[in-house]
Amino acid sequence: MRSEPTADVAVLWARYKDECDTAARDALILNFSPLVKYVAGRLAASLPQTVETADLISYGIFGLIDAIEKYDPDRAIKFETYAIARIKGAIIDELRAMDWVPRSVRSRAREIEQAYVELENSLKRVPTDAEVATHLGVSLSEYHDILAKLSYTSVVSFEELWVSGDREDGQSAISSIRDDRADDPVSVFESTEIKKILADAIERLPDREKTVIALYYYEGLTLKEIGQVLGVTESRVSQLHTKAVLRLRARLHAAQTMP
Predict the structure, then answer these.
(1) What are 25-46's pLDDT values in tens digits?
(2) What is the distance between the alpha carbons of residues 193 and 15, in angstroms, rounded to a whole number?
(3) Which of 129, 157, 182, 232 lies at a C-alpha separation of 20 to 30 Å from 51?
(4) What is d(CA 20, CA 211) in angstroms, rounded to the nearest whole number?
């Protein structure tokens, strides 16, 4: 059973729906605008830190306006319930529109991460490129082409490596550490465990991939500079970096889902 709107809001709905009063519509937008902030804040918690909450709010406003225009006050549904779904949909649609990476490529990334987990569990060692390609049912050259495409999506911070394949269920390592200028035992423990898991995952990387990670993230070298150090092309370094990131994601996700 839905709750009835306040008298003032009920009047605004009547003026807008019955008289097409734009001033009433603007007043409704202002009245329900906190819903946008609420939805944007919840979505921001599961997105990379590079996504600004202010941007999400601006996308959500369009969802709120759409909800107000299409809402029927006579229906037995609370406006807040109806609007939240519209606002969330508008934000997600805008984020998808801004994503330059095809869904098929992101799907391939998840398949490779899963292949690493399954092969390492069965082989008890790091699988070769040929073994991964066979597991995926593609040729070695096709596998290398996939890695080349994924190289445009794999430059992330170590904090974001804790995010699982499904971003809605994932959480960054940094967001799990609370800092209130005091040593919280739970936070210290979680931070220590995450560092141990990440250090172990890096240590298990093949030597060249481990070198690329060290030079790129710790020494601040560019892919071109790393290529000069290793005596390989920049595209080969990009491929090594992509494989390393996928391996780390797979191992961290496996550790996260262990009972």
Answers:
(1) 999 999 999 999 999 988 887 6
(2) 58
(3) 182
(4) 65
What gap in Å lies between CA 241 and CA 58, rounded to an integer? Answer: 35
Q: Return d(Cα 255, Cα 91) in angstroms, integer.
A: 31
The amino acid sitting at 28 is L
Over 80: is that where the pLDDT of 15 sits? yes
User: Please, what are the domains in the chain?
Assistant: 7-98 (1.10.1740.10), 103-257 (1.10.10.10)
Decide: 47 and 99 in contact? Cβ < 8 Å. no
170: nearest Cα among 48, 53, 64: 48
- Helices (DSSP H) in the chain: which residue ranges? 7-19, 22-44, 53-70, 79-98, 103-123, 129-136, 140-150, 185-203, 207-213, 223-230, 234-257
The confidence score (pLDDT) of residue 220 equals 82
What's the pLDDT at 164?
Answer: 44
179 φ, ψ (degrees, to nearest 5): -130, 100
Q: What is the mean pLDDT of residues 123-139?
A: 90
pLDDT confidence band for 194 (50 / 70 / 90): low
Tokens representing 161 are 């490596």
